[in-house]
Specification:
This is Transcription-repair coupling factor. InterPro entries: P-loop_NTPase (IPR027417). The chain is mostly helical. The protein has two domains: 125 residues, Rossmann fold; 32 residues, no CATH class. It contains seven helices and three strands; from the N terminus they run H-H-H-E-H-E-H-E-H-H. A three-stranded parallel β-sheet has the order 1-3-2. Helix 5 links the parallel strand 2 and strand 3. The longest helix is centred in the middle third of the chain and has 21 residues.
């Protein structure tokens, strides 16, 4: 992927953005990119950061960016918003939950990753990652379990 980054590194504007990033940890507004240029630029600017969060205006843009970004980096996760109106809940319920849990698991494991999501996903109320980490438990075939304890633990997790 370095071959894709080299032309960008030579641009004075990229150097200016990187310098601004180092100088002031905050938001930087960049305008003028179209289509997959946004994905390419985002990938280049995020290079060297352990966690990258990309927020899009809607689900279709998030999916499109996810598909493009997967070509550049395999450790990218799509964190979809919950369906607030339950319109698509029956059609995609397990797919949404699976995608969300994959993302949370990657964060729990501390692996370097990029998360692509939408503004709607920020409306979800989630436990802090430390609280989730404290409540993780594993079951194996043949284990003896205390159903009351598991029931209590799952209730505390919001199930």
């Amino acid at each position: 992927m370095e071959a894709l980054l080299e032309p960008l590194k030579e641009l004075a504007e990229i150097e200016e953005i990187q310098e601004e990033k180092r100088r002031d940890a905050g938001l930087i507004q960049i305008a003028g990119c179209v289509g997959s240029q946004k994905t390419h630029l985002t990938y280049a600017l995020g290079n060297g950061c352990k966690y990258k969060l990309i927020v899009t205006s809607g689900e279709s843009k998030a999916k499109q960016m996810y598909e493009e970004y997967r070509f550049l980096n395999e450790t990218v996760y799509l964190y979809p918003a919950k369906d607030l109106l339950f319109y698509h809940a029956d059609l995609r319920g397990k797919q949404l939950v699976s995608s969300r849990m994959e993302t949370i698991q990657a964060l729990l494991l501390g692996e370097e990753c990029t998360v692509i999501t939408t503004f709607d996903a920020f409306m979800d109320s989630l436990f802090p990652i430390e609280k989730i980490r404290e409540r993780v438990f594993s079951l194996k075939a043949g284990d003896t379990v205390d159903f009351e304890k598991i029931q209590k633990d799952l209730t505390l997790l919001g199930y």
